[in-house]
Amino acid sequence: MSIGAAIASVLRQYATFSGRARRSEYWWYSLAYAIVSGALTGVATGLGSGSTGYSLVMGLSGLVSLALLLPTLAVFVRRMHDTNRSGFWFFLGFVPLVGGIILLVWTILPGTVGPNRFGEDPKAVATSPAPATV
Prior knowledge:
Radius of gyration: 18 Å
Shape: globular
Largest sheet: none
Number of helices: 6
Strand content: under 5%
């Protein structure tokens, strides 16, 4: 999955917490989010903390973060589903140090091969041939 396809997939499923997300979908979206966030922060820092431009860019950064909160949570939950785990494991991230490391490892690991309790394998669905038409 390309970066553009991953971003489009996540935004198309804006608040869809059901189903599964491939590793590539999750990580390409995470990379794009980090680049946008870092770029906005870099521009704001370059403008200086006392300027009007700084306030505007940081406000824009806050709006972007708020607008992308639901799709970010949704793709994480779908990624957990791909590893056959409930989305409630998100709260493990609040355990200092260990929780974040465990979640990182789980997002890196490959998903369950074949269908699981959360749906079909997204890799199998993406690579299956189109049905023949008569």
